[in-house]
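Quick log. Single chain, no ligands specified.
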Amino acid sequence: MTLDEVKGLGDRIAGEIGKAVVGQEQTVRHLLIALFSGGHVLLEGPPGTAKTFLAQCFAATLGLDFKRIQFTPDLMPGDITGSNVFNFQTSSFSHIRGPVFCDLLLSDEINRAPPKTQAALLEAMQERSVTLDGVSYPLGDRFMVVATQNPIENQGVYPLPEAQLDRFLFKLLVDYPDEAEEIRIVASHGKESGASSPDRWGVTQLADGAEIAAALEAVSTVTLVDEVVAYIVRLIRATRTSVELTAGASPRAAAKLAGAARAAAALAGRDYVVPDDVRALAPAVLRHRIALSPTAEIDGRKPEEVVATLIAETVAPR
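-> predicted structure:
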């Protein structure tokens, strides 16, 4: 697959999702970048903004094996990974696979589960495998987690630990639509009854595993020159020295930002990364990996604003 074909595939997928989901073009683009760079995505937004439906449509267009977990305070790790159950007929244990064994796992309201249950995803997200009773079970190479959380809930929720947040490539903020988009949503979805599903809106599969693998192979050919690598490192290191932050981003964040920039370049039909790719993706990569200082919080600063300041102050290659 050529890079032009990768761009065409990305455009067609975005258009297909657009049949059912109004707006959210940037969110769809970031989901594609995450897919083609092997990353996971955390969606944060108020209820009713189509976060779950968007993930369902995304999986449908790619032909991915899709599973959904509704996170609750009583959810146990075994409810995610599965467990070994004793079979009295064979006098042996059988592995019952949990919903984590899929291509695309939607972790709905992930911050409603306690830390022990959230930690069950850490190995799956990082190593793409699950260990039960000392036996490791591999997940698919395309395994991807799309998690959602509600920013306005303050009861019955557990903040995600930093170690888990760092496993997400992007944290995307899904806001309310503008007035024109909301009119389109109400005009189209308001006449429907029952639960929405991708097939009801004509969303069809546009790719399969072989095409996704070919696209990933094409993305690996995108050139990342030393000057852009140095720019990424300078930007990440600037988060560790900023007086507005008490915690900066890790080297993992730099590596993930580089991989995401290559995928973004491929989806634009380019075989090389430019500084604008890095600048455009930095807020989504860094907003959940930095911690504001008390002074910055009192001043009402947001992580995105601090990242924008660091981007403006970091010299980019020409």
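Residues 15 and 105 are 22 Å apart (CA to CA).
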